[in-house]
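Reader question, answered in our methods column.
A reader sent in the components of a multi-part assembly and asked whether the whole thing could be modeled at once rather than chain by chain. We filled in our standard form and ran it. Here is what they sent:
COMPLEX SIZE: two components
ENTRIES:
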Amino acid sequence: MAFVQQSSPHAHNARPTSRVMLWVIIAALPGLLAQTLFFGWGNLINVVWCIALALACEGAFLRLRGKPVVFFLKDNTAAVTGLLLGLSLPQFAPWWVSGIAVISAIIMAKQLYGGLGANPFNPAMVGYALVLVSFPVAMTTNWAEAAGLFGGAPGFGETLGRIFSASQTSIDGWTMATPLDEYKHKVANHTAVEILNHPTFGDWVARGWEWVNLAFLAGGLLLIGLRIITWHIPVAMLAGLTIMSLAFGNNPDQYASVQLQLLAGGTMLGAFFIATDPVSAATSHQGKLIYGAGIGILIYVIRAWGNYPDAVAFSVLLMNFAVPFIDYYTPPRTYGHHKARRGVPGRNGG
Amino acid sequence: MTQLWDFSGGIHPPENKHQSTSRPIREASIPDILVLPLQQHIGEPAEVVVNVGDRVLKGQKIADVTTGMGVPVHASTSGTIEAIEQRPVPHPSGMADWCVVLKPDGKDQWCDLEPLPDYQQLEREQILEKVRDAGISGMGGAGFPTDIKLRPPRDRKVDTLILNGAECEPYITADDMTMRERADELVAGLKIMAWILRPTRCVIAIEDNKPEAIAAVKTAAAEGTHIEVIAIPTKYPSGGEKQLIEILTGMEVPSGGIPADIGVMCQNIGTAVAVARAVLEGKPLISRVVTVTGEAVQEPGTFDALIGTPVQHLLQLAGLQAGKLNRLIQGGPMMGFTLTTDAVPVTKTSNCVIAATGSELPAPPPEQPCIRCGQCAEVCPMELLPQQLFWHAKAAEFEKAEHLNLFDCIECGACSYVCPSSIPLVQYYRFAKGEIRHQQAEQLKADRARERFEARQARLEREQQEKEQRRKERARAAAEAQEKKKAEAQKAADKGEAVDERSAKAALVQQALERKKAKTAQKTGQSDSTAPESVDKPDIEALEKQLTQAEGKLATMEGMLEEARAQQADNVDKLERAVAKNHDRVKRAKETLEKAREQHSNETTTG
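And here is the structure of the entire assembly that came back:
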């Protein structure tokens, strides 16, 4: 009788990667819903377009690399990259801008580095940063006005037409600067009260944006509850941003307030869905805290003193650079050891 | 309520224990044949003290360890020694090892027993000797000789003695059922061990998923003892020695150390019962409780089986449906190993046999890339970074893996259990550990070789110098002789004798030939003590080389063994066998060399 030979353990109860990624997609749906409700069909169209293109790119490249296409496509990671780009790009970003973002995300940032698990940088953010730097006009003038799906936002057909049309004439009345952009460009010669009168800020923090952020926050809490992500990165990132904002930006005539920092830009999406990408994030709990805090601090630094109104992509990418370094110096203390063995072997380990 | 601590990580796999706890412990019948491996413990294999054809009684010693660490093996029932041969033994590699094969006669006749019921009146050393003589080694899995464990290093005082009744692995119920049904015996065993060690605290720790066991042990321990029976939260691997110590004391066993370093000792439930039987009834360890479970058996349960009972026999008693059997595991589903055949015997360390169907423990899905999700680090009870260890193991960056404390990994399998990419992480760690041990052995070998080479180089140099010295002396002597001859010739010439130049030369040649002859004779006379430069003795040279090689290998093996012992690695027994084998090889090589030398010197002196 030939019995199966297997190394222990013999029992497994894993939630496969594909299901983990599916949960990430599900957890992002409230945010997408809020975006659609407040900003029209743009995000939804972008999401569908980006996911489709991401899967196509991934499939094509897997085939070129001689890897099993279906096996890897089923892990849903390319879909998540497409989803994140669709959620973060401007609602009316032309199809080729989002296309370039997706292609560079999947091919350059992911597949060329060796595919799933081997990319040092967050693929979606590489794509985002690339188009942000390359096409600044398209990336700043295509944000939808927070008119609301039932309050005057362009219909599905119109939105689709605009995204996929060849001509890129700006249509006023549909688009509007983002709250953070508005604040940044007016703060030099306006008071906070004057700026906040602009319709983009609405009644509470930033019209529409606040609900989108809260929806992403809710989705993020779901991910923590499901133990798909740990609390360390989001909490550290939000804490870093908040502390910086309270320490340096308590004068609203100079810097956007802390509630704008937290609820007006891509902060929550970044904190719970982007910075937590495990492949490109730090690994130990302590490392995650440093990594998250670094992102939060950089977001504030770039928003307050840099050229860009929002800064999630750049901050995440900059901290991605630091991950190997952080990992070297933040291993946990192993059971039975007095202290953690930091650094690289042969240096100060022992 | 006693204070308890928590260990980090851990998992809650489905327990699957109820299947085998619904029936009481069943007495397994005596099988047709008993296979008793000579090595069921860590240390030296036992040497057989009976012969094929001998009749032995139940409990009679059939093998013992005379030199080195180890415990004897006893006949589990009365019968005849049928063979002493290599048979498959329970080992992850599926290897065969030396076993005594006993044909039971069905009489089950005990040998004379010498119980020591008044052990408290005796010397501790006597009791420890009794424990050793009863063949008791740790019955939880490692099989460390219990008497040695009960003698902690002189400078270590055991304050806390823990009886490990956690039994955290799914499926296994041997300890649970023992605690339910033999609580009195295990408390008696614990008392004996406590009498030997005199700890200030005695604890029996049981996972709170075993209420019946807790109740039974509490009743047994209640009578005038200071034994604490503590229910600990159910979480795998709470029964890991290090984890259990942390739960109960909040202390950690130092890396590379033993629990006695922090004044703690853990003993197994089965071991305690065995100690009680050995001391109070004089009975050696010849049977143990084994769980036989899995969906491929119809009546899963626990059996009191004689050591040496083939697993096959137990499976039949439990109603095996052979067609359904897909994977046969000894131990639990987390840390157990698959058996290649059901002919292997129950040993002192066999606590569970799982006859699993294909659907019960399905093959894991294909491995996917690691996405560094960190689930493994969340569940690691040793607070390692499994994903980093995997990364380094896969990239063969062993130095980095070691730096991240690879050798602190207890291979509990929690990381593999939760890995969303279904990476066989533990297998990677075993591979890395094996490679590192191999490299260390190679390094040791290389160091030895370098030392040997340098020694040889020095010897050759010395010999060269001596040769040079001799040559110079000869040259001087020759020059002197020449001088003398010249002087004589001069004298003769002076005398006016006509000397033919030719005859003078001939005389010189003659002289040289004579010298040479004398030298050769001298050389052959003392041939066996000279260096092996002479061409006429290739045999001895080859043999000598063989001997050095064998000695080198033995030294390497011993080094490796020491290393493995220090790390309590699982290949200790294998290494020990290897060392023994190399011992023999060296001995053989020495003997043949000796013989060859004798022969040779005889030849040279006679010829």
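What stands out: Chain B has three domains: 18-338, 368-472, 535-607. The CA atoms of residues 564 and 570 of chain B lie 8 Å apart.
Send us your own complexes using the same form.
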